[in-house]
Specification:
The protein is mainly alpha-helical. It is 74% helix and 0% strand. It has one domain.
Length: 266
C-alpha cells in the first residue's frame, strides 16, 4: 500500500501533462461536460409553462443542475473505454509488466484527466454561483466538509464500478454495450434525468439502495441542504457499502479473468 501511495503523485502528474498536451480534447470534453445543463433547460421550460413542482422553484433547478454538471464529470466511466481498447489491442500486456497494478494505472490516468478538466470547469461553476441570482447553496463549514467527502466517495464508487464492469472484457467483446445498458438504468436512478424527489415512489425507493445515487444525486442533494442528519448518514452508509461490494467484485473477477487474457494485435 505504501508503494502504491508513493506511485500515485508522479503517475497523476504525468497524466495531467498528457491531458494538457491534447488541448483539443480538453476543449471537446468541456463542451460535452455541460450536457446536464440541457436537461436543466428542459426543466426550466416545464416550470415556465406548467408551474414548478411542489417544493421546487426555477432557482432550485438552476442550483441542482449546476452542481450536477460537476458530478457528471466525475463519473469515472472513461476507464471502461480505455480498458476495452487495451484488451483489444494487446496494450494491456505492457501494463501487466509494470510494477503498478493496471487498476492504479487507469485510475491515475483518469484522475489526471479529471483534474485538468476541473481546473477549467470548477472556477466557471463557482463564478456562476456568485453572479447568477437563482443559484443558492445554503452551505456551512460542516456541510462543505460533508459535501467534499460525498464527492470523493462519488468518484471512488464510480471509478471502481466502471473498472469492475471493464473486466467483462476478459470474457466478451461487448463490454462497452453492457456498460451503456447499466448506465442507462443509472441515468434514471442517479438523479441525472430528474431529481429523485420528483421521481415515482417505486423508482425513488430503488434508487436509495442502488449505487447510482451515490455517484451524483447524493452529493448534490447534500449541497442543496435537502438532507437531514439521518438521511446524510444513510447516504454515506449506502455509498461505503457499494464501495466495498465493487472492491470485492473487482478482486474476484480480476483473479479469474486475468488467467484468460491472451494478447492480440499489438
Amino acid at each position: 500500500m505504501r508503494e502504491i501511495l508513493t506511485a500515485y503523485p508522479p503517475l497523476v502528474r504525468s497524466a495531467t501533462l498528457v491531458a494538457s498536451t491534447y488541448r483539443g480534447g480538453v476543449v471537446l470534453s468541456l463542451l460535452t461536460g455541460f450536457f446536464p445543463l440541457l436537461t436543466m433547460a428542459v426543466w426550466l421550460t416545464v416550470v415556465a409553462e406548467g408551474g414548478p413542482p411542489a417544493g421546487w422553484t426555477s432557482g432550485d433547478f438552476l442550483s441542482y443542475y449546476a452542481a450536477a454538471t460537476l458530478l457528471w464529470n466525475l463519473s469515472g466511466d472513461r476507464v471502461v473505454w480505455q480498458w476495452d481498447a487495451d484488451m483489444r489491442s494487446g496494450d494491456l500486456s505492457v501494463r501487466l509488466l509494470r510494477p503498478v497494478h493496471p487498476f492504479h494505472q487507469y485510475a491515475t490516468a483518469d484522475l489526471g484527466h479529471r483534474l485538468v478538466f476541473l481546473t477549467v470547469l470548477a472556477p466557471a461553476l463557482v463564478l456562476a454561483a456568485l453572479l447568477v441570482p437563482g443559484l443558492d447553496y445554503p452551505v456551512t463549514p460542516a456541510r462543505l466538509v460533508a459535501v467534499a467527502a460525498a464527492t470523493a466517495l462519488a468518484y471512488a464508487v464510480s471509478l471502481l464500478m466502471a473498472s469492475t464492469f471493464a473486466l467483462i472484457g476478459f470474457w466478451s467483446i461487448q463490454t462497452s454495450n453492457v456498460w451503456l445498458l447499466w448506465w442507462g438504468l443509472g441515468s434514471f436512478a442517479s438523479g441525472w434525468i430528474a431529481p429523485l424527489a420528483l421521481m415515482p415512489d417505486w423508482l425513488r425507493t430503488a434508487a436509495m439502495v442502488l449505487p447510482f445515487r451515490t455517484a451524483m444525486g447524493f452529493p448534490v442533494e447534500l449541497l442543496m441542504g435537502r438532507l437531514d442528519a439521518g438521511e446524510t448518514a444513510y447516504g454515506f452508509a449506502v455509498g461505503l457499502g457499494w464501495l466495498a461490494v465493487f472492491a470485492l467484485l473487482y478482486r474476484i473477477i480480476w483473479r479469474h479473468g486475468v488467467r484468460r487474457y491472451q494478447a492480440v494485435a499489438g
